[in-house]
Amino acid sequence: MRGTGRSLVIAISLAVVILASEASTSYGQMPAPNFTLKDLNGFRFSLSDFRGRIVLLDFFATWCRPCKEEVPHLKSLTKTYPNSTLVLISISVDAPFVDDSVVRAFVKEYGITWTVARDTDSVGYKYEVFEIPTLILVDQEGDIRSRHVGLTDSETLQSRIEVIIPEFQTPAMITAFLLAAVAVLIRRKR
Fold this sequence. Notes:
By secondary structure, the chain is of the alpha/beta class. The chain has five helices and eight strands; from the N terminus they run αββββαβαβαββα.
């Protein structure tokens, strides 16, 4: 086999190995339980709707002081990451007898612009939320990547998000690079 042919076989083999390992790699720790809720505007959504994006679940209550102090940190994240990268969902665990108007007033008072829903699907139970605020970061594959209980600053959350983003971009870039290299080798052979 000539040098170019051998190089082509090596490049293709390498691409197959990387693609196979990419398909079998689990980036997360454990699957995030799926749920379906209605936001305060009545729009029905599920966690699985956001597959391919990072999701930050914020469990809060309107009477919770640290939850109120968390809002500026969450706002900072919405300014740093576009909705195509990070989806923020605040889930109110207020008691069922608390009227939706109380949650709406909280959203208006604190200028919350992301999705807010009441916990009508026992999501807090599914995620073992016993203290608030609790923030849970779910990666693009739907796996829980981190859990933060109590007031968490935006820098800490951003550092966790920044770790996740490259893990999902790098394999695609490597694959594109390898395919380009194979194309160059094929052209040289001709």
